[in-house]
């Protein structure tokens, strides 16, 4: 055995030692390329984190297998008037520690999710008043109508007010926190599973909640989650039967998994858009050799970067055909007029000319922030972009990090510490307004949650004005035209570089039946496992 083979065998043995424990057929072992950084449900607005925590926490609403909004901790709701939503809470629900769920917990969670340090502030606007009508009725009073108020509440998880106060976690745990809080290491939800043990970066064990208020479709009694960063080790664990589910399956291994006797790849379209953004706010970039000015404030530079990227080459070489190039910052399934937009053509000569016109004939140097364990082939995509931009004279210093470090850096409180970055986004509302408000909206108002995920600070007040009209417009045709106008402005500004929607690729044992959702939330309370 060579040294390289020995090292691989050792890594595999170590990872499998984490994954393996005595278990019945109702134990499911799951491995993901990334870690579960925090159990605090307001620390990180990220779908993998939402999926993990969705087994133990719940929102007032939920989404079914087809992403339809259904009741959860709220049994029903209505709008007695256009600016008032009334939610009728489910009675008899208890948190995992036995505390009863009441309206007080909803009011507490509404305050906590909007506090500094929360990465979930856009779930509830700061000007929405939350009023307790009685112990099981809550009103949300709005300054203006909002027909999609609750569209993203399936991952606004409700917390126990009493438990939070007792454990000094009234405030949310920031993503960049260097010391874990009690809420980041412990949970107290209302969901179908309880976290028995949590070792960040090592293993998290979920046990079925014997006192769960609802009915669970699946038959699992235990879920063991083990982060396995190495693609080769993760795939080997699935093929050997040491784990039952992995996500994602590396593109290059899909055919190998599909041809194995004991596992298969569940494939399907995903609603996440992968894109590239720029710091358009600072007068001087944090990470560049250009001093005294910011090249990305010049639309010609942003256009040059856009036209220098060969999206078809990324599709064929990096993604091996498992991506859909996008002209917009949203998946076509979520916007009826997507077909009216065409992605600008790859034009490296034109890009070079634009850089020269902008005053950078020899290009410049800038750092690119990129996760290396969050999206399908994320680091490889970034590496391809590095090579493409080099052709027009731009030197990219690639900083590819595990998602925990990546998000802690780029979302740093009071900061947004990045000059040029790759990110993925699935609109939690399944609606364009989420993209227009969260990703593309101005973030210059400290009192507003607008632009919370706008890492680069793109800002166009005309764009924001249209976004506000989109929110209150109830006529679908008129609303779609407003959304189209907003996207047209964003494209004219070269605000972002949308790349593609990636494909889902979950590796699943043939002993497991696991429904797949297009939002990539891997939810095991629907899963069944047989001998």
TrEMBL record:
Keywords: Signal, Transport. Residues 1-25 form the signal peptide. It holds the Pfam family SBP_bac_5. Residues 68-444 form the Solute-binding protein family domain. It is found in: Periplasm. The keyword Transport applies. Belongs to the bacterial solute-binding protein 5 family. This is ABC transporter substrate-binding protein. It comes from Bradyrhizobium diversitatis.
